[in-house]
Every structure is written in C-alpha cells, then in structure tokens.
Amino acid sequence: MNFLDMIKKSVVSEFTGSISVDKMIFSLLIAFLIGLFIVYIYRKTYTGVVYSKSFSLCIILLSMVTAMIIRTISSNLALSLGMVGALSIVRFRTAVKEPVDTGFMFWGITAGIMSGAGLYLISVLASALLGLLYVISYSMGFKVSSNYLLVIKYESSAHEEVSKIMKKLKNKKLKSKSLTKNVIELTFEVELKEVKEEIVDQFEGIEGVKNASLISYQNDFGA
C-alpha cells in the first residue's frame, strides 16, 4: 500500500458512519435546549430599545440547523463535499447592528456543531459555563451605557435656569436647536447606564418650561 492509498483510506474511514434517526433527534433536542438557554441569557442581558423575537428564534434555529448539518456530513464524504459546495454559494446580507448579537449567533452555531458531533455533555457544560461567565461580566459593569434623547421646550425667559441644569449632566451632546417666537426647543443626546426620571423632574418647577421628554433610542448611524 503506497502513501496515497494510506491517505485515501484514512480519510474515507472518517466518513463510514451511518445516519441514525435516534442520534439525529437527540442532537436536535440538545441543540434546541442549548438554544433556549442562549436566548434566556440574551434576553436577560439585553440593553437595546426594542427586543427582537425573530432574532431569538434565529439563534435557536441556527443551533438546530447546524447540528443537523454536522450530523449529516459526518456520516458521508459525498454529502460533506456537496454541503460545502452548497453553502459556498449562499450570501448572507442581513446586517447585524450590535456586535454582541454576532457573539450570540456564533455561540448558537458552536453549540450546534458540538451537538451534531455527538459531544453532548461538553456542549451542555461549555454553554452553561459560558453563560455564567457572561452574566458575571455583565453584572460587573461591562454593559454598554444606553443612549437617550432629552428634548426640552421652553420660553426664552427660562433659558438661564435650563442651562444651569444641563451643565450638571455629563456625557451630553447637543443634537439640534430651534427657535420659534421666543420658544426654544433643544435636543440633547445623553448617555446613561440606567434611566433616571429625576432628570426630567428637575424642569417641572421652572417657569416657562413647556415640555421635557426623555426618549430611549439606538444611535445606529454614529456621531
């Protein structure tokens, strides 16, 4: 037996398994449970404005589909080559706005790979440890501050009092200013780690202030 035959035999021997229905179902079940755990961690640590249910379902689906792919290609060399060729022509153009969302997607894919490869215990333990470490880092203050829009509408006579309050706020940026018949409207971008209602309450006792609003939003377009 020459060297090429040895390589061929070793490669083919890795794909001599058969697809078992019970193993496929068990892999999908483990991937589904881990996907639910990932979504639970994602929802508990979510800091955005609007929670996306479709993204959570996408994480679960990614875990199960990846497990099904790995379980399939590990049993047949022709299927594995065909699957690689099919996936190479797929183009994903959906933009992921938050970097942490990309991390959760890779987590779901990794869990699906381990489940499809039959590493059930390792996939469960690794996901549990990863989720625990992420929650710890989140609770220690690594979460990103949220952006808010502070909109103040007041008469020009109250400008001095409003300016005194705004000087006390840190991490603020003026986004817009409009003046209509002695009525000034200011829009500030403020960065807060938690919602503080007293920010708006400070303007209540100032004579001439018509309206003050604190609005949560995501700055997806940069500064």
Break the fold down into its secondary structure elements and pairings.
Blueprint: H1 3-13, H2 21-44, H3 53-73, H4 77-88, H5 99-116, H6 120-142, E1 146-155, H7 159-168, E2 172-180, E3 183-192, H8 198-201, E4 209-217
Antiparallel strand pairs: 1-3, 1-4, 2-3
Helix pairs in contact: 2-3, 2-5, 2-6, 3-5, 5-6
- Overall strand count: 4
The general outline is: elongated
What summary fits the major beta sheet? 4 strands, antiparallel
Q: What percent strand?
A: 15-25%
Helix percent band: 55-70%
Q: How are strands sequenced across the largest beta sheet? A: 2-3-1-4
**Rg:** 27 Å
Instruction: Please give the count of helices.
Output: 8
Give a description of the structure:
The structure is a single chain. With 223 residues, the protein is an alpha+beta fold. The protein folds into two domains: 3-142, no CATH class; 146-217, ACT domain (Alpha-Beta Plaits, 2-Layer Sandwich). The protein has helices at residues 3-13, 21-44, 53-73, 77-88, 99-116, 120-142, 159-168, 198-201, and strands spanning 146-155, 172-180, 183-192, 209-217. The chain has a four-stranded antiparallel β-sheet, with no helix packed on it. A hairpin with a 2-residue loop joins strand 2 (172-180) and strand 3. Helix 2 (21-44) packs antiparallel against helix 5 (99-116) and helix 2 (21-44) packs parallel to helix 6.
